[in-house]
Amino acid sequence: MTPSTRLSSSFVLVLVLAAAAFAQESPPPPEDAQKKIEELERRVRALEEALRKAEVSGAAAADAQKLEDEIDMLVARVDAMAQQPGSGVTGGGGPLRLIDISADGLFAAGTSTATDDEIAALEAGGHDPRQRGFSVQNVELTFAGAVDPYFRGDIHVVTFIDSEGETQLELEEAYLTTLALPGDLQLKGGHYFTEFGRINPRHPHEWDFVDQPVILSRVFGADGLRAPGARLSWLAPTPFFLELQTGMQNARGETVVSFLSSDEAGLPTGRPFTDQSISSLADFLYTERLAASFDLSDESTLSPGVSALFGPNSSGPDARTEIYGADLFYKWRALSNDQGWPFFSVQGEYVLRNYEAEEATDDDGNVVPGEDLVDQGFYVQALCGFERPWVAGLRFDYAEGEESDVLEESADPSRDRRYRISPNLTYYPSHFSKIRLQYNYDDSQFLSGDGSEHSVWLQFEFLFGAHGAHKF
Amino acid sequence: MLTSAMPLLLVLSGLGLSPVTLPPEAKLDVLTTLTDFRDIAAQVGGDRVEATSLLKGPEDPHFIDAKPGFIRAANKADLFIKNGMELEIGYEPMIVAESRNPKIQPGSPGNCDVSLGVKKLEVPAKAVDRSMGDIHGFGNPHFMLDPVNAKLVAQAIRNRLKEVDPSGASSYDARCDAFIRRIDEAMFGAKILERFRAADLELLCEQGTLIAFLDKRGARADLSGWAAALAPYAGTLLVDYHAGGSRYLAHRFGLQVVASLEPKPGIAPSLSHLGEVVTLMKARGVNALLYSPYNRRSDVDWVSSQTGVAGVMLAHSVGAVPDTGDYVSMMNRNMEALRKVLEKP
Fold first, then answer.
1. Does any CB of chain B come closer than 8 Å to the CB of residue A396?
2. Is the ipTM of this complex over 0.90?
3. Residue B234 is part of which domain span?
4. pLDDT tens per residue across span B209-220
5. What whole-number distance in Å separates Cα of residue A353 and Cα of residue A311?
6. Residue in chain B nearest A64 by alpha carbon
7. Nearest to A465 by CA among A153, A188, A145, A108
8. Inside any domain, residue B203
9. Looking at chain A, which residues constitute the CATH 2.40.160.10 domain(s)?
10. What is the CATH number of domain A100-465?
């Protein structure tokens, strides 16, 4: 090393130390930083001077060697800082994180042997593709984040274009969740999807199929069951995951079909709508759920759950509805996997609804007798992520309604016996987009001809922004 | 401290309230995301802690399902240790929020982000977006393959252990010092450390001048360990599959990674991109191809067959492959695997 490079290195040392002092100690008192730099500068000069003297005087070689070692070390430190600015950075950084905003667009295109009117009955979900041609299924804005040390907040606003071409705007969810309640409790309050089964609380972009299962469209309506309310959840101190949830929500509104739906949409066909007012605690919707999860091995997990709903319905002042559900989710995923592939999962839900319809008089003065209307159905779906980034899926849907005295079930598309078989194939260009092709074979009593229809849908999704983790 | 608190504990339990302090025989429940931190927490914590990790060694830390069992584990943790730099963004925020455990919420002493103290690489100098692939805005988060960072992580864990369990402070200090000494000796050997400071040797190693420095002083024979295995190859060119831990390992030993098989971080290799990498490897004389156990092996094999450059599988975490039961043995294995390939002419 020549004296000139050594000199320039010590100059660099001073500059870098100055920069480093300002960058790392935020914010340092200027006098202190200056003192520190001056001290280091003195040290380098002293060392160089000592070395020069040692060389001139022919002092012990070991001493000169020691001094040179020390200078080389200092120079090495300077070089390390000077060569790679931005690398080897210590310390944290990052802006204040106030809110996570994300946007998700879900679109579909396709066609069917069924007419548009029939499609609207077959695909009864509000975000399902409900017409031949293109559909804007769901454009969702999500705002989420920690409110303070005690709460986190989540808001989901959804917009879509209905089959009439009208833009619809929905406040899908807006709720607070507690972070610091004692006793392993958690309280959620606001307007939210009822935690019943596995699909109802999830947004359409999380679904594994283009459309929602038939039985869920029947008992929860086009938009899923959601309403203002509050629910308490408790994590049990068991060796496995066990969560108990109990809550109450408003039983009124157009998203609470099966209960006090605000119009006739939720009412079994042929019954007059009676507007109910809230007069007691019995007029709320009560929601219960028990969910467990077992890690069977490092690679497989089994999550069963049961749910129940109790509340008044709009067929008369004393009429009640009960809905029960059981669900199961199993997933296997290779421990050493390629971005999550390969995996295999099975999911199923069974739902039973007992709708107690009261005796009523219709507009023409005819008496409609009271009766219990029982509907049930299930879906089972399997997904196979055989090779990144492909996922093949198969779903079987079944739903039926017990015969009504008022109207023959076979004529009612919301209560007839039907099944659907849906194979699909999804391609994920990245974790933020997907392309899905699905075929539906529908067999339903209300359909004309041989009672079956074929549909093909292509779905596309994009997601950007800071989007929270999905539930397992 | 604990004995003086005993009457209070008794009073509290008499009232039916749960005591805030641990009973003397109970161990501190330390939950980590990665297995590396579990190993270091166990080594620094000793008998006072019971450390478990959410992930298993072979898993790809980018793609983890937020399993409900994680919530169960997080609920009872006294100290939660994570990598940070958004590596766990896909599951950790939800697990912590759902845990109902005030001790491990962000900002609490029981929530430890070890990345805050480490030396980071590839911190973006300007805004990044997803067109650049699955890029981490806070820099490359796979810092554990740099042994210097393992020592910094041990210190970060020690500091938090002392904060949540002050009565164990002296034990944590001693065990952390012992861990750091183990890393230094594994890196350079005990002999050379009698003459030079580990911190200085680390810098020389990073700059690729360690061997020249020691040669000049006739001290090269005193060097052993990981530095002796890799420092002679400073300046060697490498290719990796993903811009991950390989970058930290290369950085520490003065090796240079010139390309990745992934065209952009997290984006699957395309045939055209692999073709470009093959051309580049031939033109520049690349000596090894680094990959992780979970990377798609067929891509590695193809590039290897086209170029004749051997693939070197690096264990990315403790327990990722056999014989990597703790941090030092994992690094022993990685260094030896890479050295074997580099020593070939």
1. no
2. no
3. 224-342
4. 999 999 998 999
5. 12
6. B217
7. A145
8. no
9. 100-465
10. 2.40.160.10
